[in-house]
Amino acid sequence: MHFYTPRKLAAGLGSGHGATAAHWFMSVSGIGLAILTPLFVIAVGGAIGLDRAGVVAHFGRPFAAVVTGLFVVVGMIHWIRGTFVMIDDYVQGGPRAWAQILTQLFGWAVVALTLFALARVLLAPDVAVVVPAAAPVVIVN
Fold first, then answer.
1. Does residue 130 form part of some domain?
2. DSSP letters for the chain
3. Domain that holds residue 70
4. Does some domain include residue 129?
5. Which single residue of 29, 106, 134, 135 could bond 78 by disulfide (Cβ 3.0 to 4.6 Å)?
């Protein structure tokens, strides 16, 4: 007895469709995160207690910057895919689409902001952050 339609045979998809590929992606990214998490803790732990110039110098080193970037990118893609599955399982109707859209927007915004911050530190380490000075306070007696 043949359970596969010609379309499924041509596409290479069984009864699980893309679920097997999604499961493998989550498993591999989970293993990657298990390796990256201690490296991330080491990379970020070295910056604890430093002043701003020290933190900029610390993340200006390739190890800290690369590990932080990889951790955030892999972690957020893993988070996006995982929350997408949870939303599919537990949210019905119109809120499902909005929840999936917001999940995607939040996840990619975190990735973009992190990579922007790392690029700014790596590419322009001597540029200081310009904070506008407050208006002078005049006390009249």
1. no
2. -----HHHHHHT--TTTTHHHHHHHHHHHHHHHHHHHHHHHHHHHTTTT--HHHHHHHHTSHHHHHHHHHHHHHHHHHHHHHHHHHHHHH--SHHHHHHHHHHHHHHHHHHHHHHHHHHHHHH-TTPPPP-PPPPPP----
3. 18-123
4. no
5. 29
| Tally of CB atoms within 10 A around 9 | 11
Distances (CA, A) of 25 to 17, 35, 113: 14, 15, 24
Number of domains in the chain: 1
21-67 pLDDT, tens digit per residue, is 888 899 999 999 999 999 999 999 999 999 888 888 899 889 999 99
- Measured CA to CA, the distance from residue 72 to residue 78 in angstroms comes to 10
The pTM for the full model equals 0.76
Which CATH number do you get for residue 117?
1.20.1300.10
Whether 3 is in a domain gets the answer no
The answer to whether residues 59 and 50 touch, using CB atoms and an 8 Å cutoff, is no
User: Would the pLDDT of 124 be above 90?
Assistant: no
CB atoms within 10 A of CB 19: 12
